[in-house]
């Protein structure tokens, strides 16, 4: 991957640029963040911004392969969604950024908090380039930070890592006012004295001129020698330095990068902050470098692009480590596929084909319609009573009800395949409800057989554990290809939806299987030669009589 688009999505402005593999920023563009118009309007504007950059890159012969975003809010970086957010952007919490933009742009998208993106940019090609670990602390409108180790941000178990303005400071108290209120609603935090707006508030409490309307004017007055302004800046800088030094003691980084508007405000604040930080450090850290940021407002763009150019943010795990898969544990090592998860309290199943068929016959259901109970599987026609089936090309059948799926799972199947398209189902259940039923009553994973990229995105949202390309060409969404639908395989694999992709459908030769794997498939199902003897006979006839 040689080029990516990096996006810095803040509460007021969304800036973006095309970034090369080595971290060079080729060109940029920006648009206002429509922070009162709702998430859909913001995503629409972001899509247009990315499309403009992509078109400009294409005109220069540059292919953009992915999109990285640093967004305001607490970001679930595994899912690319907004875990929580302040009212700086109305309705932003819960927004599915990555899934939505992947579906619209057809590109892999990864998302992280904007401060983490800023720190990643500085750690990659900025002031901390080459360092094995970096602590970045930003002092501006608020106080935030990030710890980067070997290019990867420390996100935290609940993705709130980096909120360094939210711990107690001995400076965040006033004789008359008591503990100072933080923007988060609590009291005595470092942000309540060390941020730009709180420096200004401290100046006014100390008897400063009320005509100084903002922090910039406090610095202007300090530069002319006004004692109250100089004292207010010194006090806030000492609070910032104490925080930097304390965090240095905790994290032991190779270098500390300090950014934000206050860090750029001049020597009075900077020199005082560094001196206080050095006084706070433990003796082994006396040589710790504390440096100003080097990339300015381009850092978050570059850092966001590094999400996809350097592949550092952890992906969702196939081993069932997501919250909604916590019921799973690892299968025994002697199982046919030891990487597939299994419930810890489950009885080891008998996976022999005869055992599975006997159990299906006793239940009077189809012996293996969609069953993945054995490493080499088939899809057979069989007696199903009044169970609804959906016909597929060349005589294959596919269950559309949840009940036959549970029969397959209870017979010992590791993986149960089902129709993963968005078409109506005979039993009235949607895909999410069907998958939930299988998960609730069995140990099996669910493979959603999809007919298009949009089907795959919807299936992942519905809770599918695996995506299959089985129905490509059979639902009217895509043209039926002679062999496997390699374009669809490549598109889904590039989107990195967070679950494995199984290439299935019309894979008849080892060469076709290799193309599917090279296209990004996690595994390949070779079923045509097993389930369609008439087709195989026809191929030989055509070849021998040509």
Features:
546 residues; alpha/beta; six-stranded mixed beta sheet; five-stranded mixed beta sheet; 17 helices; elongated
Structural summary, described in words:
- By secondary structure, the protein is of the alpha/beta class.
- The protein is built from 17 helices and 24 strands.
- The protein has a 6-stranded mixed β-sheet with strand order 17-20-21-22-23-24, with helices on one face. It has a 5-stranded mixed β-sheet with strand order 3-2-1-4-7.
- Strand 13, helix 8 and strand 14 form a beta-alpha-beta unit.
- Helix 5 crosses helix 7.
- The two termini are 43 Å apart.
Question: In one word, what is the shape?
Answer: elongated
Strand content: 15-25%
Q: Total helix count?
A: 17
**What structural class is derived from the secondary structure elements?**
alpha/beta
User: Gyration radius, to the nearest Å?
Assistant: 29 Å
Helix content class: 25-40%
> Taking all residues together, what is the mean pLDDT?
82
Q: Write out the strand line-up for the largest beta sheet, numbering strands in chain order.
A: 17-20-21-22-23-24
Taking the alpha carbons of the first and last residues, their distance comes to: 43 Å
Largest sheet: 6 strands, mixed
Low-confidence stretches: 312-401
Q: Got a strand count?
A: 24
